[in-house]
Specification:
Layout lengths: L6 E5 L5 H16 L3 E5 L14 E2 L1 H7 L2 E6 L1 H11 L5 E6 L14 H9 L3 E15 L2 E8 L2 E5 L7 E7 L2 E8 L1 E5 L7 H4 L11 E7 L9 E4 L4 E5 L7 E5 L3 E5 L4 E16 L4 H9 L7
Parallel strand pairs: 1-2, 1-4, 2-3, 4-5, 5-17
Antiparallel strand pairs: 6-7, 6-17, 8-11, 8-15, 9-10, 9-14, 11-12, 12-13, 14-17, 15-16
Length: 294
C-alpha cells in the first residue's frame, strides 16, 4: 500500500540544545523508517554531522516534500506557514516552544504519534491566511502574508493614530486608537486574544477586527465574513510613521495617508493533527479552563 507521505522535510530554527536534539532524532528515525528526508538549510552549520545534500531552502522543501515537520513553537510554525502555504504540502508541528497552539506532537515521545500519522491516521484542516498590502498613491508599496494576524500600529513609540475602516468599499467606522488587529480564526488565540478579541473556531470563515486601546468605550471587536476585503485609510494628519505587522514577524512601513488592504489569501495551510486531536482540549489545556464538574 502506498504511504501518504514519502518525502519529508524537517523545518525550524532551534532556540536551544533540546530542539537541535529533536531535529537529529527525527532525522535519524525517519531515515531508519525508509523515508527520504530533507532539513531546513538554516541548520546546516548546527547539524554538521548530516550530509550537506540533505539540506534545502524552505522554497525547495515546499516544492519537493509531501510533509513538513516543524520543530519549535508557534513562531516557527508561523514563519514556515507563510512560505509553505504556497505549495501542496501538509504540515505538522513538534512543540519545542511555550504555548504551542499549532504544534501538537510531544518531542519526548513523537514516534508513536508520528508513526500513526505517517500511516495515514490523521485529521487534516485547511487554515486560511491573510494578505496585507500597503497602497501609496494608488500603487502597492509592500505586501506580505499572515497566518495569525495583520496589525496596524504606530511602530516604536505608542501613541494614538487615526484611521477609517472600510469593509468591501462600505465605510464601517473611524477610530482613534493605538491600532487595529485583523485576525484569522488561527490567530484568535494569539495577539487578538490579549487585546480582548473573541476566540473563533478554526473552521469558521471569519475575520475579527479588534481595536487596540480605542479612545471611545463604544469600540468593540467586530467579526465579519472572511471573504470581505478590509481597507484601512490612515489619516494624513497622523504623526510619524506607522507600520503593519504580519504575525509579529514582518513589518511593512506605513506613512500618513496610506491605505492598507487586508483580504483572504488564495493560499491555505494544510495543517494535520494526530487522530486524537481536539481543538477544545487544546484550549482547555493552554488557557487553563476548568475540567468537568460531574
Amino acid at each position: 500500500m502506498k504511504k501518504p507521505f514519502e518525502v519529508i522535510a524537517i523545518i525550524g530554527k532551534p532556540r536551544n540544545q533540546q530542539a537541535i536534539q529533536t531535529h537529529r532524532e527525527l532525522y535519524t528515525w525517519l531515515k531508519s523508517e525508509g523515508y527520504q528526508v530533507f532539513i531546513d538549510d538554516r541548520l546546516i552549520e548546527i547539524l554538521d554531522d548530516i550530509p550537506a545534500e540533505d539540506f534545502a531552502s524552505l522554497i525547495q522543501l515546499g516544492k519537493a516534500a509531501d510533509l513538513a515537520i516543524v520543530v519549535g513553537g508557534d513562531g516557527n510554525m508561523l514563519g514556515a506557514a507563510r512560505v509553505l502555504s504556497r505549495f501542496d504540502i501538509s504540515v505538522i508541528g513538534v512543540n519545542r516552544g511555550n504555548l504551542g497552539f499549532l504544534t501538537d506532537l510531544n518531542p519526548e515521545d513523537f514516534q508513536s504519534s508520528l508513526h500513526a500519522v505517517l500511516n495515514g491516521e490523521y485529521i487534516e484542516e485547511d487554515r486560511f491566511l491573510l494578505e496585507a498590502e500597503v497602497h501609496r498613491h494608488g500603487q502597492v508599496k509592500s505586501h506580505n502574508a499572515a497566518l495569525n494576524e495583520a496589525v496596524l500600529h504606530p511602530g516604536q513609540i505608542a501613541h494614538m493614530i487615526e484611521f477609517e475602516v472600510y469593509i468591501d468599499e462600505s465605510f464601517a467606522f473611524s477610530l482613534r486608537a493605538d491600532g487595529l488587529i485583523v485576525s484569522t480564526p488561527t490567530g484568535s488565540t494569539a495577539y487578538s486574544l490579549s487585546g480582548g478579541g473573541p476566540i473563533l473556531s478554526p473552521s469558521l470563515n471569519a475575520l475579527s477586527l479588534v481595536p487596540m486601546f480605542p479612545h471611545t468605550l463604544s469600540s468593540r471587536p467586530l467579526v465579519v465574513d472572511s471573504k470581505r476585503r478590509i481597507r484601512l485609510v490612515v489619516s494624513p494628519d497622523n504623526r510619524g510613521t506607522q507600520e503593519v505587522s504580519c504575525d509579529g514577524q514582518v513589518s511593512l512601513p506605513v506613512s500618513p495617508g496610506d491605505e492598507i488592504h487586508i483580504y483572504q489569501s488564495p493560499n491555505t495551510l494544510k495543517l494535520i493533527h494526530p487522530k486524537d486531536y481536539s481543538y477544545y482540549h487544546v484550549l482547555r489545556n493552554k488557557l487553563g479552563w476548568s475540567s468537568r464538574l460531574f
